[in-house]
Write a structure and sequence with these properties.
Radius of gyration: 29 Å
Strand content: under 5%
Number of helices: 13
Largest sheet: none
Shape: elongated
Order of helices and strands: HHHHHHHHHHHHH
Distance between the termini: 49 Å
Helix content: over 70%
Length: 334
């Protein structure tokens, strides 16, 4: 390619595109012209890069194409309206749609923790395999480690630490679900094993009521968030196996975007449970008052999901991006 001849032939088009980009208002004909010139200039840039690379000319055309692309496609910024829409429609709708996955997950996991607790609590040999007798007494006695755990650090830092750990666990369930859900099952098992050990050891010491009084205020909402994340992760794993009428790529993109949104929403839910664990659980409030706070938070979240989320889901909201922000997809045969 003769670069000088090429520049002479197309310089007028580039100058015209630059002039149109400098205008604040365009007529309909000028907007059409801008799109056409943008497409041509992008082609010119590709030809120059591949045939006769010139740093100065390539730099000029790259800037021109970038400006034109920004003008043609537009730049959308998130607004408070988007935040409100996510909190009132997108997130609760996504949780509501996943209820057929996280509700069974919650029931099976809770039953597993209870069964493990019963097994550990009624079998001294199992307890002996977990720790030495002195260590078990240090855990379960009045003022022992199970009780002092919640007041061992300043409330604010403890709440922040709990929130970070739980948010990471929820995010891992959502992200790792794509590996056929197997890592999600492992994370769930670890959580239920920890809970079952606490139930079993404290019940064997005759202090199950104390243990539940410490766990329930924050645990109801916290475990619900973990179950939602796990159920969504399992659904994502099942999508890999059976994408339904959608192509596997499209199905994973849709469910993956919804899962990312749920990770953000669940982080907010876990922030609330972390605050309860940091400030309410170790407080001097009566046990009934602390548990009542936990039940109130749990019922509020369920109402949020089933009322707002159910309404949004029935209106067609899936928790995915709105149609205008999604890439076009190729129809698939039924």
């Amino acid at each position: 390619m003769d670069l000088d001849v090429f520049v002479s032939a197309h310089r007028a088009e580039w100058d015209r595109l630059d002039a149109l980009l400098r205008r604040r208002h365009l007529t309909g004909a000028e907007a059409d012209e801008l799109v056409t010139l943008y497409q041509r200039t992008a082609t010119h840039l590709s030809l120059i890069r591949s045939s006769a690379p010139d740093p100065q000319l390539t730099g000029r055309l790259s800037q021109l194409v970038a400006r034109a692309r920004s003008t043609v496609t537009g730049t959308r910024r998130a607004s408070w309206h988007d935040v409100a829409r996510f909190l009132t429609r997108g997130f609760p709708a996504a949780v509501y749609r996943a209820r057929h996955w996280w509700t069974p997950t919650a029931l099976v996991s809770t039953a597993t923790a209870a069964l493990l607790g019963w097994w550990i609590g009624t079998h001294p040999e199992v307890q002996a395999s977990l720790a030495a007798p002195d260590e078990l007494r240090a855990l379960t006695r009045p003022g022992g480690q199970y009780e002092t755990y919640y007041s061992s650090h300043p409330a604010a830092s403890f709440a922040a630490q709990v929130w970070t750990n739980n948010a990471q666990a929820a995010a891992m369930c959502l992200v790792l679900g794509v590996f056929l859900g197997l890592p999600v099952l492992w994370i769930l098992l670890q959580n239920m094993l920890n809970l079952g050990v606490g139930i079993g050891l404290m019940s064997s010491a005759g202090r199950l009521d104390t243990f539940l009084g410490l766990v329930l205020p924050h645990g109801l909402l916290e475990l619900t968030a973990v179950f939602v994340a796990a159920g969504t992760g399992l659904r994502l794993g099942w999508t890999v196996i059976d994408p339904g009428p959608r192509s596997r790529r499209t199905a994973l993109a849709e469910e993956g975007r919804a899962a990312v949104g749920m990770a953000i929403g669940l982080a907010l839910v876990l922030f609330v449970s972390g605050a309860i664990e940091g400030f309410v659980t170790p407080s001097g409030l009566p046990t009934w008052a602390r548990i009542a706070i936990g039940i109130t938070a749990e019922l509020a979240f369920l109402a949020y999901v089933y009322v707002l989320g159910g309404r949004a889901a029935r209106a067609g909201d899936t928790g995915d991006l709105v149609a205008a922000e999604r890439s076009a997809t190729v129809p698939t045969a039924a």
